[in-house]
Amino acid sequence: MTHSSAKSNRIKRTLSVFLAALLLISLVLPVLGSVGEDAYVNDDTINVRSGPGTSYSSVQFGKSKAILLYRGQYVRVIATEKGTDGATWYQIVFTYNGYTKMGYMRSDFVTQIGDDSAYQAYLSEQGFPKTYQPYLRALHAASGGQWNFVAYHTGLKWSDALENESTLGRALIHGNYGTALRSTAPGAYNSKTGEWKQYEPDWYAASRQTVAYYLDPRSYLTDGTCIAFEQLSGGEGVTHAQLKKVLADCAWATDAIIDEFIRAGSKEELEKQKQIDLKRLRSEGKTDAANSLEKVTVTGVSPIYLAVKARSEIGTSSTKNATGYPLSDGKKYYNFFNIGAYGGSNPNYNGILYAQSKGWDTSYKALLGGAWFIFRNYIEDGQDTLYLQRFNLTPQYTYAYQYATDITYAYQGGWSTYASYVKNGLANTALTFTVPILKNMPAVTKLPTSAQEDEYQPKPDPKPDPDPKPDPDPKPDPDPAATYDYVGRLQLRLSDSYLSGFSLGTPVKTLIAQIQAVNPDAAVTVTDGSGKAASDSALVSTGQLLTIQDAAGTYAYTCVVYGDANGDGRIAATDLLAVKKHILGVRTLTGAYARAAQLSGSKIAATSLLAIKKHILGTAPIVQK
Fold it and tell me: How many distinct structural domains can be found in the chain?
């Protein structure tokens, strides 16, 4: 054998070994997981480790909180390694509170999404941006294809929505969240004393960055929190057995009440309630209200949503809200959703009095009346999800009639509902989600932290960070700019960021001129409830946002014109109708609109109607206090 032929044989043997090894790797990799594959977490409460094995520490958020991921969380596999425990581990990249993080997870807790080209095409047809799609694909796959996502194109600009939702007093954060999420804007924080304003006991204005994070629909797409987008209408086909699981730990949930939940949420029963209301309104001569109700198309309300809401409102222990609260008329009254339970030292009792005013003297009347209230006040106007109840991005009363000031309301509500679904084996039932999309959204939004958060960065990004910037750390200003008492100089009245005392019929142009007469350098804007700039000829109206920016800072106020309950700057028959609907429980006035209708004490009552009537007749003009 020649030297050249021996060398040739060695090369052939080496090549054979290499090809065999390559074949082995190709056979093993599909089992271990392909690098660069889209995947999702397939179980709940899973640790992310700093290395491949349980001996490694957990990856932290905020320097002290161990990161746990939940079923449906989108991850990307970037490496496969044998762990110190002998198991196979994936190195993964994922998003947590808006931050890109990297860590390790045992392979049996990660499932590759695989070929879902048909669903990807569907998402593209819906018009979902690319920044939404990986998360939606993961959630869809994790549910076994049972969860479907429908795009809701709001037509609103991100910047306009953020500006409106960031108005001081409109978005609050509880003190338990610490100071990092609070606003340090003038009016919310006093830099001289280091104190934050409490809008309610232990509730503070949320920072603009905090509002941006919770406003961003993508913040809800990492796990079961997406239940905040579940459609609340419909719910046909829910069984007694399914609902019994949801209410299993509720002492008040008898079999009869469970059946009543299903019945009360049905389209047929709600249609009957509509006919009852129509008959009553016509008998009372309320033709306009009857004609308005006649045009309403009734849908069902999900019994599962009603059950979860009742759990959150009245708890799981035996309660008179569900078993009947006896009053002096000898009857028991029920209120499963705490409707009307606000104000005073005993809000729960106020809710029972509300139930009495509605005649809810049986559990079924209360459930049907509550379902009808939810339908009329939210679902009818398109606020068909927990998210839209918190952030009204619908064309009807945009940014108004929002269910809560708690900025985390939809986030926490979505999560608690999901936890109930998981606990009771309902997580993989067929559900439809309506996910909002806004125009010109930022690439990402991040929850503020008290310290710089480490992020995974595969390569440096030369582009500037487009994210909303957090409020600056509070620091006393050693050389404060001149401050102007706009409120005092114009003889207006300020209470909890609501500004009143305007002369009825004042044009916006006049108000701006009055403010600039106090400080010629002030930049003044007035926007309506939808975020659009009010024209110079428009009247100062309830619900408008007045923003004044000068060298000392930015001041934002919500305008209140007493008697102007519908926000057109006038006091007319349309305001009578708005107050009537509130009193009847057809459409609840909230925020500035509620204040504008409180014309006698702190309640909206028949005296409010009388005051507006007298103003229209010219016998007793409403004083702008």
Answer: 4
